[in-house]
Amino acid sequence: MPVIEVKNLKKYYRVHQKEPGLAGSIKSLFHRKYYDAKAVDGVSFSIDEGELIGFIGPNGAGKTTTLKVLSGLLYPTSGHVSVLGYIPWDRKPAFQKQFSLVMGQKNQLWWDLPAMESFILNKEIYEVPQAQYNKTLDELVDLLEVKDYLKVQVRKLSLGQRMKMELIAALIHSPKILFLDEPTIGLDVVMQKKMRDFIKEYNRRFNSTIILTSHYMDDVKELCERVIIIDKGKLLFDGALSEIIKKFANHKLLTVVFSEPVDEKKLADIGVVKKFDYPQCVISVRRNATSLAAAELLQHFPVADLNIEEPQIEDIIREVFTGKDLA
Amino acid sequence: MRKYLTVFAIDWQNQFIYRLNFVLWRFRNILRVLMTYFLWSTIFSVQTSVFGYTREQIMAYLLLVIFLYGFVGSSPSNDNIGGEVSSGALNNFLTKPIGYLRYWFTRDLSSKLLNVIFAVGEIFLLWLIFRPPLVFSSQPAVILIGILMLVSAVIIFYLLGKLALASVFWAPENTWGFMFVVLVLMEMLTGLIFPLDILPRSAFTALQFTPFPYLLYFPLAAFIGRLSPLEAVRLLFQSLVWLGILFYLVKRVWSAGYKVYSASGG
Ligand SMILES: Nc1ncnc2c1ncn2[C@@H]1O[C@H](COP(=O)(O)OP(=O)(O)OP(=O)(O)O)[C@@H](O)[C@H]1O
Ligand SMILES: [Mg+2]
């Protein structure tokens, strides 16, 4: 039984088009031109309980828009969406008590008060029993190591400390489903790692379902078995991370170490030279031509060492995003 | 219910962070009383009675109206909601089991309480200086109806503001919406600057078909004994009719607004 079901979801924003300049402004006062921005354009997927999904795509792909529809902030243009059996945009309290949306750049904390006050307010809003609240808060404060900052005005916290507080505020009602929109944005590498560890641990400990968007491939590689890739509002891929290589990598990388200097131009006949740093060279070749290329190399060049590798996941995803063929 | 009590408590704490803002806001209120008073003083320097009001009666009226204005008119929601809708901060509320308009109404109440506490002190001071004869209705029933009219006035003003601000859903660039219209009308038509019954009879009657005199003038008229019990009941009823109409409109317009809301940000 999937906890999240999305069928043929479309969300078009109505955008008011304004011609530049003052004349354009005046003209648009009387005659407004609109066009539809197709932020999400026919996306379907379904997610089971306890899954930790990486939801990736280039800027403007439609990730945030999808998460906003799933949390009931936006009404879709068309399509069917069910989360925990509810229609999100009905905004039923019983549904709202079971999920949380965390956006990297948004904050819900009261800026001038210690974060503790916002936690207490959320406890009341979500009607969390006192005992459960104490337990959850202790656990979260412990996991995120923020005990010392609970009584400090939020405006005086660093970005990283504040993000941790935001997370606590979002988790105080123990949501079953978590939408994390770029939770590691702007954090240093150490904090990013801690945030990742936390997300992983949270998913494991509470069997919560998590959809995570991020532009840092490390987040996705470390956390998510399954990824969904979208671009321009359309689904490009949905499956195991390892499957991406099979599906999209139409090339392999040959790493060669030469024993004598060679003519770089001649290497171009073998494949695309990605890096040449004598004595080492990396050549990208079509997958189905790998053995042929290797044989050619061994035959015509002074090869000391030869390695055939799958390309890096980052490279493949970049390739998918840009629609370029690297081989 | 408890969640709104907590909102009240947390807003109360928050208000003390902005002490300076608050003091300045109260200072503005005192200036307003004084300015209106001096305006009237020039009128009274040439005649002893204007439209049936003596100098002292006018002063008493102004003191009380400013007190009521502190209660009805202090409404931080009007300064914040437009920005929150436009910037997408509203997202924080729409995903939670809390009513956004109720949340802000609660915060308004917290602000009103603080304002009233200060207004009592200010009015006492001004009263010590000017010593106007404060006359109140001798009929407890009318006073009671006046209190109900005041409660209704607080809600009507809240709803008027929210109706004006709903336009931000359609025009997010204009975070102030039609709020300025409401505030201008509030100054002119509610009795804030002069008692409305000095207007020509026909204008005064026509005003009763707008929500504005129910905000300040009629509750005050009940308190100072200018309404008979029968009139008071009729006006309370009319006030409640306005409340009902506005409640319905706000509900409709906001639910349409949520549908076009584009949840900016992120
Ligand atoms: N409120 C809005 N009004 C009009 N168009 C919008 C609005 N919000 C987003 N869009 C458009 O919809 C598309 C998808 O935006 P969205 O925010 O979902 O992208 P995203 O995948 O989250 O990108 P990023 O990685 O940059 O956060 C973009 O082309 C954007 O310009
Ligand atoms: Mg985004």
TrEMBL record, chain A:
Gene3D superfamilies in the record: P-loop containing nucleotide triphosphate hydrolases
Family annotation (SMART domains): AAA
Domain annotation ABC transporter: ranges: 4-257
Alphabetized UniProt keyword annotations: ATP-binding, Nucleotide-binding, Transport
Record-level Gene Ontology MF annotations: ATP binding; ATP hydrolysis activity
Keyword Transport attributed: yes
Matches recorded under InterPro entries: AAA+_ATPase, ABC_transporter-like_ATP-bd, ABC_transporter-like_CS, ABC_transporter_ATP-binding, P-loop_NTPase
Protein name: ABC transporter related protein
Record organism: Candidatus Amesbacteria bacterium GW2011_GWA1_48_9
TrEMBL record, chain B:
Keywords: Membrane, Transmembrane, Transmembrane helix
Keyword Secreted carried by entry: no
Keyword Acetylation carried by entry: no
Coiled coil spans: none
Pfam families noted in UniProt: ABC2_membrane_6
Positions of transmembrane segments: 30-51, 58-76, 113-130, 142-170, 176-194, 206-226, 232-250
Designated name of the protein: ABC transporter permease
Organism of this sequence: Candidatus Amesbacteria bacterium GW2011_GWA2_47_11
Taxonomic classification: Bacteria, Candidatus Amesiibacteriota
